[in-house]
């Protein structure tokens, strides 16, 4: 399991002796290209492309996002580089090596993607600083506070404007290209990672706070609509800037989104958002009834989703009572069934021809329990239920391994074994 972790340690020992941070990071990048070239990578990529493009894969892809566990798996104090830029790259490549040791279906490529720089006015967007309260302790919880305190504050909301910055983007590209020259191709894109710009409920909670936002839907619905309209217009302006930049590299290579091209070929040789995936969810609306969720959230999100070629909807919220609302989402390809949703109901009401189910496992069950026996039982139950369906198995939002260093690896191997049995 620790082959690549040990390789990273050997690289680190050399840099500590030679004090050559740049060569060290280049060595890490070279090891990552080795991972990308492994024979196992071809079936991993095919598995994802099949499941998200309407074909049955050899088995469901299994993927983990360690999230908060990175603080335990890769503590910042173990990083070797002192230069901020090289330190960031060291962290990224060492994460890739650790992901290889997890041995899930994480895709790795022989190229590196760089975010295009998009400037925003005003900054902060919408004209208000987000406010939160916390315990001021590492890893502790936090709560939303209302930036919009009074009805008159809603009149001060500003629709943000966005503009592509070619100079800063070129400077950034030059720096990455110089570092990775001869090892990895560098590709710029304004659409990277888990692209969830349609999750406008998060911005709403950031601006108004959870409690006041929910009360507004009942007592002051016009204020809620005013805020959602401004937020949605801001997102649309951002998407306009992305398309005008000409810097779109389709995100069909990302975990959870990995698929065939969304269109046979780009129009006029230029990619648009129709060649890209978008994610959205309704986490802050978990306790809101289906009708209000449609009126105050999904109707706004659908304006954003219409611009994309494929959509993934849902995260950690329970969507059991909102399946009908989610099915109104245009270009919906992935329906997320969280650990709190009724998987059987989602299987019953979605279509295998149209929808891949992202089956989310419970992070707390995987990391908190002494053994994986219960998780295995749940996985057997779900895999039987999903037999004959296209689905992914995803574990996200972990916060601690509680000292169980091999727990994610053990989970990944167990899941791969079980889903293969019912493939």
Walk me through this protein's architecture.
The longest helix is centred in the middle third of the chain and has 25 residues, at 221-245. With 423 residues, the protein is an alpha/beta fold. It is 45% helix and 13% strand. It has a 6-stranded parallel sheet, sandwiched between helices. Strands 2-7 form a two-stranded parallel ribbon. It has a two-stranded antiparallel ribbon with strand order 3-6. The protein has 16 helices and 12 strands. A hairpin with a 7-residue loop joins strand 4 and strand 5 (142-145).
Task: Spell out the blueprint of helices and strands.
Blueprint: H1 3-18, H2 21-36, H3 41-52, E1 62-64, H4 70-73, H5 84-102, E2 111-115, E3 118-121, E4 131-134, E5 142-145, H6 151-154, E6 161-164, H7 166-180, E7 185-189, H8 200-208, H9 210-219, H10 221-245, E8 277-280, H11 290-305, E9 310-313, H12 323-326, E10 332-337, H13 343-349, E11 356-360, H14 363-368, H15 373-385, E12 391-395, H16 407-421
Parallel strand pairs: 1-12, 2-7, 8-9, 9-10, 10-11, 11-12
Antiparallel strand pairs: 3-6, 4-5
Helix pairs in contact: 1-2, 1-5, 2-5, 8-9, 8-10, 9-10, 10-11, 15-16
């Amino acid at each position: 399991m620790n082959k690549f972790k040990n390789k990273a340690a050997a690289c680190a020992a050399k840099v500590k002796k030679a004090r050559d941070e740049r060569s060290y990071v280049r060595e890490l990048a070279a090891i990552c290209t080795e991972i990308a070239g492994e024979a196992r990578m071809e079936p991993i990529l095919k598995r994802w492309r099949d499941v998200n493009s309407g074909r049955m894969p050899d088995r469901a892809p299994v993927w983990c996002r360690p999230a908060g566990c990175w603080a335990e798996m890769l503590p910042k104090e173990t990083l070797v580089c002192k230069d901020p830029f090289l330190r960031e790259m060291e962290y990224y490549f060492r994460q890739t090596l650790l992901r290889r040791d997890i041995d899930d279906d994480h895709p790795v490529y022989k190229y590196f993607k760089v975010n295009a720089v998009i400037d925003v006015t005003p900054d902060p967007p919408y004209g208000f600083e987000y406010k939160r309260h916390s315990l001021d302790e590492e890893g502790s919880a936090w709560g939303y506070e209302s930036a919009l305190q009074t009805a008159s504050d809603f009149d001060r909301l500003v629709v943000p404007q966005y503009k592509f910055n070619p100079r800063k983007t070129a400077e950034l590209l030059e720096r990455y290209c110089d570092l990775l020259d001869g090892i990895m191709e560098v590709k710029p894109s304004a659409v990277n990672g888990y692209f969830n710009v349609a999750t406008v409920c998060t911005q709403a909670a950031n601006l108004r706070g959870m409690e006041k936002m929910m009360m507004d839907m009942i007592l002051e619905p016009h204020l809620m609509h005013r805020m959602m309209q401004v937020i949605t217009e801001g997102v649309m302006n951002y998407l306009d800037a992305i398309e005008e930049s000409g810097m779109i590299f389709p995100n069909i290579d990302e975990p959870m989104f990995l698929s065939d091209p969304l269109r046979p070929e780009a129009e006029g040789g230029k990619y648009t958002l129709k060649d890209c995936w978008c994610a959205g969810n309704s986490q802050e609306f978990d306790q809101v009834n289906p009708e209000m969720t449609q009126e105050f959230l999904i109707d706004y999100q659908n304006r954003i989703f219409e611009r994309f070629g494929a959509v993934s909807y849902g995260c950690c919220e329970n969507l059991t009572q909102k399946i009908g609302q989610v099915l109104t989402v245009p270009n919906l390809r992935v329906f997320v069934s969280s650990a709190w949703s009724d998987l059987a109901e989602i299987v019953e009401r979605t279509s295998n021809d149209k929808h891949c189910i992202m089956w989310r496992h419970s992070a707390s069950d995987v990391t908190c329990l002494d053994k994986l026996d219960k998780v295995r039982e749940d996985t057997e139950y779900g895999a039987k239920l999903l037999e004959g369906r296209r689905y992914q198995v995803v574990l996200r939002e972990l916060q601690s391994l509680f000292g169980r260093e091999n727990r994610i690896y053990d989970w990944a191997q167990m899941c791969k074994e079980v889903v293969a049995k019912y493939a």
